[in-house]
Design goal:
31% helix, alpha/beta, Purple Acid Phosphatase, chain A, domain 2, 16 strands, 392 residues, six-stranded mixed sheet, 10 helices, single chain
């Protein structure tokens, strides 16, 4: 019998986005993390999923405030199918957490009766599967979250026909020099290190993992779903956030997975070099391709280099100002140098009607040709002078 479910993780509801200075835009990003959860319900109905697994970090903090908890529970309730979740490193359990408070339990009963938070490391049985939950009770634990499984009495589970699903939050690789998958040669002190290689052979049909924010296959039966909504600029490679996984599993059979896009926001990275005056138009075309007519849906990490004349540099500043207003964030590294064209130099330096402007322009142009910070200051001053002259 095939069991169908959704695998997701790392919602981090209530994330602050501290690097964004605009309060309104920070609020829109926080709301997007909630709004994109509606897609999970849509996918669940479309795929006729039996339940949803959330592999940790539903909330961004173990001390999330009451409004954040209520908003998150309201979104979970609308998913419409059973949701089985564990605490992760961000919303870990334990005495200081909210999971067992009267407030949370009361709101869960009212808003999300479909949610079951698995706080104990022990087998959990549903109508169609066995779940082996590995909840975190602290942010960083030197022990393997799956360690309890190696000493548990699991004969009845192994002998049955129900698929067995591992639900865990942590890393499958030691980044301190150890080997992948947490085998015996790995770094013993790495926190929350999931040792897949040490699980009882043939026990687990699917490992639903959380903590890595991109969708990633670790083994043919072990996956990170990634976060449903991107929350940072990626460094490229195979990092692929903004998805959930639809999973079909049978006991002892090969798992089938399908990646489904759920992100409402897009985080872009662009490096661009100005090689001539026509490059500005090319940059505008790239912006149009990336953003279309969207507003408050995109974030851009932009690195600019090269040289532009005075007028083109002024046009660039205007373009970036307009773009920044449309984006949720523009993270800009602007290394463009001001290089006046021959026409611009002649116009400023040889103004017979404004000899003082001509003298100042000549001085600034000479300083621009010298290395160091003084040249950068002179470039800005020359641009301001050019703008002032042309705004008369």
């Amino acid at each position: 019998m095939t069991t169908k479910f959704l695998h997701t993780a790392d919602w981090q509801i209530g994330k602050n986005y501290d690097r964004i200075s605009d309060d309104d835009k920070r609020g829109k990003l926080r709301q997007a993390r909630l709004d994109s959860l509606e897609k999970l319900g849509d996918v669940a109905r479309q795929k006729q999923a039996d339940f949803l697994l959330a592999a940790g970090d539903l909330f961004d903090s173990p001390t999330s405030d009451k409004n954040t908890l209520a908003a998150g529970l309201g979104a979970i309730g609308k998913i419409g199918i059973p949701v089985y979740a564990i605490p992760g490193n961000h919303d870990h359990g334990g005495p200081a957490g909210f999971w067992e408070t009267d407030y949370f339990l009361g709101q869960k009963n009212d808003l999300a009766p479909n949610l079951a938070v698995l706080l104990k490391p022990e087998p959990f049985e549903t109508e169609s599967v066995w779940i082996l939950p590995c909840p975190l009770v602290r942010r960083a634990d030197a022990s393997d979250p799956t360690g309890w499984i190696r000493s548990a009495e699991l004969e009845r589970i192994q002998a049955g026909n129900k698929p067995v699903i591992l639900l865990a939050h942590g890393s499958t690789q030691s980044f301190g020099g150890g080997t992948a998958y947490g085998d015996e040669e790995g770094d013993e002190s790495a926190p929350n290190l999931i040792r897949l290689a040490q699980l009882p052979p043939g026990l687990v049909d699917y490992a639903a993992l959380g903590d890595w924010h991109g969708t990633k296959e670790i083994e043919t039966w072990a996956f990170y779903s990634g976060t449903h909504e991107p929350d940072r600029f990626t460094k490229g490679g195979d990092h692929d956030p903004g998805n959930i996984l639809f999973v079909e599993v049978e006991r002892g059979r090969k798992v089938r997975t399908e990646k489904i896009r759920t992100a409402l926001t897009a985080w872009h990275a662009l490096n661009f070099e100005f090689t001539d005056e026509n490059s500005l138009e090319l940059l505008q075309q790239k912006f149009a391709e990336l953003f279309g007519d969207r507003v408050d849906k995109d974030l851009l990490q932009l690195k600019l280099s090269g040289r532009l004349g005075l007028e083109a540099r002024t046009q660039l500043d205007t373009l970036l100002d307009k773009l920044s207003a449309r984006l949720l964030r523009l993270k800009l590294e602007n290394g463009v140098q001001v290089a006046p064209t021959v026409e611009e130099i002649n116009e400023l330096a040889h103004r017979t009607t404004d000899p003082l402007i001509g003298l100042v322009a000549k001085t600034l142009i000479e300083k621009c040709r010298q290395p160091g910070e003084e040249a950068d200051t002179a470039s800005l001053a020359l641009q301001e002078l050019f703008t002032a002259v042309h705004s008369r």
